[in-house]
Amino acid sequence: MVALAVDWQASGKTTGTLGEWRERNRAVFREINQFHEAARVDLGVQGKVTGENHPEGDLLLPAARRDDDGASA
Q1: What CA–CA distances, in Å, run from 18 to 43, 49, 63?
Q2: Residue 64: is its pLDDT beyond 80?
Q3: Span 4-12, mean pLDDT?
Q4: How far is CA 60 from the centre of its chain?
Q5: In whole angstroms, what is the distance from residue 23 CA to residue 51 CA?
Q6: What pLDDT digit, counting tens, does each position of 25-57 carry?
Q7: How many helices (H) and strands (E) does the chain have?
Q8: Given pLDDT bands bounded at 50, 70 and 90, which one contains residue 10?
Q9: What is the 8-class DSSP label of residue 55?
Q10: Chain centre to alpha carbon of residue 64
Q11: Is the pTM of this model over 0.85?
């Protein structure tokens, strides 16, 4: 459902600020990382993609086209 929220905002079906957009994307990546961890365990792959060796970084997103208040940049 988190990924759908990103899609809905990207397509204009829902509104939100740039901060909300970025938090939605972070949530999607957290979910993806959890899936990858579970898949690694299931497949018997050693190592982790999260934790101290792989700290959570911020998203690399293009510059905003609009301010958080919705005004054009």
Answers
A1: 37, 27, 10
A2: no
A3: 89
A4: 10
A5: 19
A6: 889 988 988 898 899 899 998 877 666 655 566
A7: 2, 0
A8: confident
A9: P
A10: 16
A11: no
Angle at 25 between CA 19 and CA 26, to 5 degrees: 90
Average pLDDT in the 68-73 region?
50
Q: Report the sign of the C-alpha dihedral through residues 59, 65, 70, 73, in that order.
A: positive
Cα 20 from Cα 38, distance rounded (Å): 27
Q: Is 69 helix (H, G, I), strand (E, B) or coil?
A: coil
Residue 13 has pLDDT above 90, yes or no: yes
Provide the CB-side half-sphere exposure for 13 (13 A, CA): 6
The length of the chain is 73
R_g (Cα) of the chain, nearest Å = 16
